[in-house]
Amino acid sequence: MCYTGTTMARDISRHTTRTVFAFVILVGLLSFAVTYNALFSVAFILLCMGVYVLSYHLELGFYVMIALSMMTGWQLNLADYYGIFRDYPALLSINAPVADFWVVFLLVAFSLQYFRQWIAGKRQSIVTPGLLLYAFFLLSALVSLVNIPVVERGEGINYLFRFLVFLYVGYIVLGVNICRDKQTLLNGLKILAGVGVFAAIMGIVSLPLGLWTVGGFTRAVPFGILGWSPFGNVHILIAEVLTTTLPIAVFFYVQSEKKNKTAWAISAALMLITAVLTLSRAAILTIGVEACLLAYLFRKKIKWERFVAQFSWVLGLLAIPMFYAAYFILTNPTVEASQDARSHLTGIAIYLFREHPFIGQGVGSFLARLAEVDLFRLEFGDPLEAHGVVQKILAEQGLFGLVTFSVFVGYIFWRLYQRYQQEQYSIEARMLSLLGFFLVLSPAVFQLFNTQYYSSKMWIPIMLAMAQFTIYKTDKKHGKVFHSDRKPIVAEV
């Protein structure tokens, strides 16, 4: 019998499938024999089978990851499933966003797919963008562990892997290695924009319900639906989603055909107005930075008289919530209390930084050090994370950490902006690089005033921006058109 390469690869794949399923069932039976926990054994077998099926549909898993990335309020606590995990007390303490659980499953599925391809003789490369620069940031975190008390050092090591390593491997490396073509990237961007529209609608609906009303002011907030709270219940969580997805809606409005422009214009306006109505200072500042930078980059291409005439309705609608937000910020005592807490947190972060200015107090140690400040607990309650990525890194990893982190993020900005400026790249590559620049800018500015710096909400959009490094690496032919709606991107509005 004569075997071709394809036939042999197919036979190997079938043999691998049978082997994997046999292994999964065997391990499940062994777990039952050891623990006598039928629920855990069944759950384990089903989970392994699901991951195996997912390994054949990585793009679908990628799209789910994109959608879940903004829904960090949707948490999964394994303690709620005591009957399944009762024999594994270490697992009962795990509590994380559903998005992170999904990333772990997808990472295992990707590894399985890679192994299967390797067995079949197909060579695959793993893309690791900015690895060397990020490695220096990880080194700063590793060095900072020496300043953590010995009894807490295990928690610091856990924090290093749970957040800093997971951030790069689970969000960036996994994402860019699945998103290898233009259509997958465009689909991912549209899914992210769709989540932004969902968040905006939820925020608008919350206003007449009066879910947050203090001193006569009502703000847009996320809320639960039959016990499901995808965005949590705090206004700043939905504001972050909207400021990140707004540039995507604007981008697709500019490049889409006339029949789709109205839908994208409404989506962008809805996101913009809802973001302002969250009354979040971080959101308003982020949008202001985005608008000013965009106006500067297109100052010679935008016909301002035509622009104002075309979008006067948006400007008119925006004026009302802007005045409302400004009046709230200037007069409501809630803002003053929030500002006072943030000022104290910043002062404490600076104090901790001065104690160990070069390598910091130790990665993941800010909450532990803050808990030692009795006056803060008496005044503001339970310890809070540092309100800003700069304060966080300065306190925990010192100048070494802040410089290496800044170089890594600066490298991403530089590559995206460089591609946008280089005319030898196609219009498609340049305009998507510009969008990528704003996908990095928005969460970076927002996290100067927030606590979600190591979450999927910040790094999944950055991953989508970095995916272009590979996808458009050789896309330098002039005249090549991009068509998500069968029309090239235009640079004029």
Account of the 3D structure:
With 493 residues, this protein is mainly α. It has 2 domains: 5-119; 132-471, no CATH class. It contains 21 helices and 4 strands. α9 (182-209) packs across α10. The protein is globular.
Strand arrangement across the biggest beta sheet: 1-2
What is the element string, with H for helices and E for strands?
Answer: HHHEHHEHHHHEEHHHHHHHHHHHH
Q: Which runs of at least 5 residues are low in confidence (pLDDT < 50)? A: 1-9, 478-493
The count of domains is 2
Structural shape: globular
Distance N to C terminus: 65 Å
User: Biggest sheet, in brief?
Assistant: 2 strands, antiparallel
Instruction: Report Rg.
Output: 24 Å
Tell me the β content.
under 5%
Structural class: mainly alpha
Instruction: Provide the residue-averaged pLDDT.
Output: 85
Oligomer: single chain
Detail the topology: elements first, then pairings.
Layout: H1 5-35, H2 38-54, H3 58-69, E1 75-77, H4 82-85, H5 89-92, E2 95-97, H6 98-119, H7 131-144, H8 153-178, H9 182-209, E3 213-214, E4 217-218, H10 235-255, H11 258-277, H12 281-297, H13 304-310, H14 312-331, H15 333-355, H16 366-371, H17 374-380, H18 389-421, H19 427-446, H20 456-466, H21 468-471
Antiparallel strand pairs: 1-2, 3-4
Helix pairs in contact: 1-2, 2-6, 3-6, 3-9, 6-8, 7-8, 7-18, 8-20, 9-10, 9-11, 10-11, 10-12, 10-19, 11-14, 12-19, 15-18, 18-19, 19-20
